[in-house]
Amino acid sequence: MLALGLLASSGLAQAHNVSELAKQRMLDGDYLDFAMVGAEHMLTGYDHLLFLLGVLFFLKSFIDIVKFITAFTLGHTLVLIFATKAGVGANPYLIDAVIALTVIYKAFENLDGFRRWFKFNAPSLLLMVFLFGLIHGFGLSTRLQQMTLAKDPMLVSKVIAFNVGVELGQIAALTVMAAVIRLWRETSAWPLVSRVANTALICAGAVLFVQQLQGYAGTREPAIERSKVSIDSAGEKL
């Protein structure tokens, strides 16, 4: 199971870290470099892959897969382009924590959790996938803004090249996931596999969520320490 493998990974919280090599390629490279970094970013973005796995789980027809993945792609593409262009960002750990919650949500829905636990049907899946695409796109934008110069005159076209790479990476990942799920579905163990896999997705999402909050707390500690130093210095002067 992909989710179980991720749970055993010690570098789970660093799934979206931007390497210095990637930053340099974005600063000095051409459109092909941007596309390659985009594909690499998607294929190493465990939270995005886990969410896509959850979305694919009970989609049987090719038309349904295209419809839902198009909604997700449209959402994250719109935010990726416009948020990056406008320079709108947030603490990446908080964004990734919210993305982890989308993984938990989708797996919980796959287990029919809304009807079983809360006695009502889940909201429109197509709408939720689009909204979650917006959140995932904001996460991509936040990371992309760490890789490139905000005042780059070719920023928009480079963001589009980056997004093309993201989509190519997404297609590659979806192809493998769809093939594996199809093999699972044809076995008599499918009901058990689906329960175990989606439970593992919830666990993986929970681990991601906690680790991202820990990462956020780590970014806050230096600021708190600086504040204490300032207060102590002011007290000494008085």
Ends distance: 62 Å
What is the count of DSSP helices, taking H or I runs of 4+ residues? 10
Overall mean pLDDT stands at: 81
- Using only CA atoms, what is the Rg? 20 Å
What's the main sheet like? none
Structural class: mainly alpha
The ordered string of helix (H) and strand (E) elements is: HHHHHHHHHH
| Low-pLDDT windows of residues | 1-15
The domain tally reads 1
Helix proportion of residues, in percent? over 70%
Query: What is the general shape?
Result: globular
InterPro entries: Put_HupE_UreJ
Pfam families: HupE_UreJ_2
Transmembrane segments: 120-140, 160-184, 196-213
Keywords: Membrane, Signal, Transmembrane, Transmembrane helix
Write the layout of secondary structure elements.
Layout: H1 2-7, H2 20-28, H3 31-43, H4 46-56, H5 62-86, H6 92-110, H7 113-118, H8 125-147, H9 155-185, H10 190-237
InterPro entries: Put_HupE_UreJ
Transmembrane segments: 120-140, 160-184, 196-213
Protein name: HupE/UreJ protein
Quick description:
The chain is an all-alpha fold and 238 residues long. The chain has helices spanning 2-7, 20-28, 31-43, 46-56, 62-86, 92-110, 113-118, 125-147, 155-185, 190-237. The termini are far apart.
